[in-house]
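<instruction>
Derive structure tokens from the sequence
<data>
Labelled lines for chain and fold:
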Amino acid sequence: MKSKFAKAVLICGIAVTAGFSTVGAATVYNNVSATLRPDIMVKYNNEAIALKDANNELITPIIINGSTYLPIRAIANLTGLSIGWDNESKTILIGDIIEEKDEIGVRGVVKNLVKGKDGVTFLVEGKLEEDTMLDIAYVTVNMQTTVMKDGVEITKDFAYGEIKEGDILETVFTGPIAKSYPAQAVAKKINIISEDTKTPVINARVKAPDVAGKIMEIEEGGKRILVDSKSTTVNGLIWVTVNKETSFFENISEDIAIGYRNVSREFEVGNHVEIIIDGGVKESYPMQATADAVAVNEKR
């Protein structure tokens, strides 16, 4: 039903804006008399709608020779189609609207925050992941930046004042990125992530831990830990190697939905840990693996 309606509108739109033509023949333009009819109400799914042009200005249906014409852009947007105009070929372009996902510039911990007159600048230090552009960057947040917390926009004035050192956040950049080290960029969107949130974040990315359980033994000054894992992925005793590439969380929930908070941490026997494995699990007894990220969950 949706596509039939859109096609009907397309035919009307071309008849009004581009003149009448047939394939292989020259276009014939006709001047016609039209009547604006602001009294005609248009409903979509039985709800009254306001028709607007590309400049968001209100427009009304028009009557030409007894037929009613509606603006193609307004109708197409309602039916989930995008509208474009190729001026060179005088062609209306109609297609499905493709939702663009924001590319996350950097995700990590806020450091070195400096307050300015119209915003704040700070260092975000994290880890390069599959869905991030950088592992570290200086980020500027201003009045034009959308600031969110756990995916919900903070609507009060000067929302950037909610950002504090130690926060975990992810940012979407706008404009050019200065190719220094660390890189420098202005934020289009910032999302502050609570450590225990279960709310989907920008381009939601949630991964469950591979290993979850109590530490039974510690070797080599914390470089190897024996965990009695009760997760659905790894169930049983497993030796986990922790190296300089391993990242750490504190007080996470059972789902890991953010980048890595790099913190120093001393393991203790009895700690409940949740671990993301780097690579595979060696089938021995106990099993063996290397940690990509380790969380010590003090709430368990």
In short: The mean pLDDT is 76. The chain has three domains: 2-96, 106-193, 211-296.
